[in-house]
Amino acid sequence: MGRVNSPVRLQKFPARQRNVLWLAALGIALAGPGFAETIGEPVALLQGLDKITARVSKFEAPVGTPVRFGNLSIRVRDCEKNSPEDPPESAAFLEIDELHPGEASLRVFSGWMFASSPALSALEHPIYDVNVLDCRTASGSPPASSGKVEEKTAR
User: Fold this and answer.
1) For the chain, which residues make up each domain, given as ranges?
2) What does the pLDDT look like over 52-105, one tens digit per residue?
């Protein structure tokens, strides 16, 4: 009997090529049937999980402005959303650095994250998880507080 070809595993590709594949997937996911236009939004709604304390936090990150979550610095480079008449999908390009006092920051994630498929491109960190929930307009969202994070404790 002949050998069955297995699907392509993205782990075989170097990080730079994986980012290109994610970008292609973003184009397909956001375009959907009929290749709809996406809307660039100025604010990303993110969710963070501190795995040590089991605290879940929702916070806003304006595009281009770094925000802190624990010892992570998160900078949203782009946040795109499907138009309202298309199936809902939001995606953001994030750069996440880990900060340690007295040391240079360490880039732990750089790439697109998708609201509908958080496991597709996830932050792999022993303490923190970060997911994209939505992309918003600045005027339609509640005012972002300076460094204050809404926290919920898992039970």
Assistant:
1) 13-141
2) 999 999 999 999 999 999 999 999 999 999 988 888 899 999 999 999 999 999
Task: List, for residues 106-137, the tens digit of each pLDDT value.
Answer: 999 999 999 999 888 899 999 999 999 999 99
Q: 64-98: b or e for each residue (b if 16 or more CB lie within 10 Å)? A: eeebebbebbbbbebbbbbeeebeebbbbbbebbb
Residues composing the chain = 155
Q: What is the largest CA-CA distance in the chain?
A: 64
Q: What are the DSSP calls for 35-88, one per residue?
A: TPPEEE-SEEEEEEEETTTTEEEEEEEEBT--EEETTEEEEEEEEEEE-TTSPP
How much is the pTM?
Answer: 0.67
